Amino acid sequence: MDAEPLIFGLTVAEFEDYSLKLCFTALIAYMVFIIGQLAWESKAGKYGALWMFVGLGLGFVGFIAKGFIQRMLGIE
Questions:
Q1: In whole angstroms, what is the distance from residue 35 CA to residue 5 CA?
Q2: pLDDT value for 17
Q3: First-to-last CA distance in the chain?
Q4: Is residue 39 part of a domain?
Q5: Rounded to the nearest 5 degrees, what angle is found at the Cα of 25, between the Cα atoms of 63 and 70?
Q6: pTM of the prediction?
Q7: Residue-number span of the structural domain to which 17 is assigned
């Protein structure tokens, strides 16, 4: 008998990995939308909107970079 339970034909670890990537991608896309709305409603202009995206978006840029670094080093 199979010791590891299956979810949608995936093991639990595979399901968690795909779910994490999918949900964080959706969350990052939503945060980009929110930053754009903030820039639009505050009438920040092009330069102000650029700095809003840089300042507020730096956190998820670091998260994405972490994934690339792990893949390059073969840690994942």
A1: 40
A2: 86
A3: 29
A4: yes
A5: 35
A6: 0.69
A7: 6-73
